[in-house]
């Protein structure tokens, strides 16, 4: 891919028949006491305005994680596991890709993303989602925000190693999507990047993460977005490759800190 869970012990029976009525009366009394206690506690909770346990605070916006060209939803499992181990509820984490695995027209992928976003919002009750994208999907997500109905449904956009301005490593043009980002001047990219690379940035926070050790999305600054809230560069001997950036601990820590820092924007 270029961008690509004991069973409780039962009560012993009483050996003498003449003790059974007494035991039955005790059990009945205990049951009634427990029921009364539960009812009183429920009334106390209502009186104090306490929230029901079945309706916890929503917390983080749902995160939809999307792989690059030829990737599968499981490609994003390391990112999903990282978020979950750092406090994100499992029921607010989603991995997804379009029907072509980002190999065909990215505008059509964006249309399918629109359906997925609406499904996640309906399922979770959230107003907005975070899009965590990698490689080719960075472009489909921006198209969704800019040209479809994403502006009011996305709170944050995070792009890992995206060919935002094309790539010099473009020997993948048997795929339609690769043709769309094969150079900075493709019709798709020219339209996507004009008049701004960060559409609706008054409503959406933008983070890009790139690496000097990425030899797929090249040159390295192709992954930057002019006007983004942050363009984060990873360099030095520990800089991750194109394929490792979405599981790199430093990159994922940056993503988490950005999300939490901008949740109330």
TrEMBL record:
Keyword Signal assigned: yes
Signal peptide segment: 1-44
SUPFAM superfamilies (alphabetical): alpha/beta-Hydrolases (SSF53474)
Keyword NADP: no
Sequence ranges of Polar residues compositional bias: 1-16
Alphabetical keyword list: Signal
Region annotated Disordered, chain positions: 1-22
Designated name of the protein: Lipase
